[in-house]
Amino acid sequence: MPFVFIISCLILSQAEVPEKPDPLYIQPFQTATAIFPGLILPGSGHFSAGYREESMDLLVFGGSGLGILALGGIPAAVSHASRRFNTVTIPLIIAGAGTWLVSWYADIFGTTAKGAWAGTEPENVPFQIEGGFVYTKNPLFEFSTFARIAGFAQWSVFSGMLEMWHALDDSNTRMSAQGRVRLLNRKKDEKEFYSVYLGGEYWFHRFGTEDFTNKGAAVFLQSRMNLGGLVKTASGSFASVTVGLGAANTDYGIEGTSSDEIETLITSGFSMGLYLGKGRGEIELYYNHRHDDFAGGLKLGISGDGIVGYFGIRGFYEVFEGWAVKWDVAMGSNPVIFLGVARR
Prior knowledge:
The protein is an alpha+beta fold. Helices cover about 25% and strands about 40% of the residues.
């Protein structure tokens, strides 16, 4: 869960980078060590580079994720992934795996950059509007091209977003509204370290050609951390973990059909990325477990929508002052590619 981030940060946030590390290996073997055995033993790369304290910090942080993973994974295995427990076990598995992978990422990035990455976090803006086009291909539907517009607003600890997708080659429209409040914010060395948010979302998706409508709502708890606060060698990188649950209902335009059935959704996920330039932008890899988006879930050789969610890469870069290029490429059962412009 996101509270893993909070507890780990409170314990580990006092780490400093040693002025004279005592490396076991030279580059690029340090980074290679971070990749493996770093995947199994987080902090291996920092240990080989001479950052002993940072290595232990990453091991503790990744170990906390492994503990959360076990809390969800063991009951899921014992119950044979029973649907009665999935709303508890799957979010725990995702949060635990996400925290473990974030520790691995921090080990690789920190060992490679050693605090020298020049990227800094972009400044928050009170309002932003963006628009662009989306391409997707789902063999079950006629649509493939969408126009997408969205607006973001932020005031004090509150923020919100309105978004609409409208198909240009079919009768299909999806609208959503999201709001969140910042519950916790901590700084270190006068820089943002981590924040925790509580939020909610409502969506309405009309499939005009097929004559049915899907609508639902979700709540989520999200933690976002600048990894430089965890280990200074990873300055310029960040990560987030989200735990969320939702419910959706599909109303079919056929007389006599019932629309009372509620579908439970797991909207958990995680991401890891880095900042671009002096506050110019950011890029991140992410995983989202929800299956009701256009991307769907990865099939992994299974017919229909798979049990895994979808992966993607997204970001933005401010080309001119106040004007940024945005992109988002996701892959689940279907590819989803967005390219647009944002006015910040």
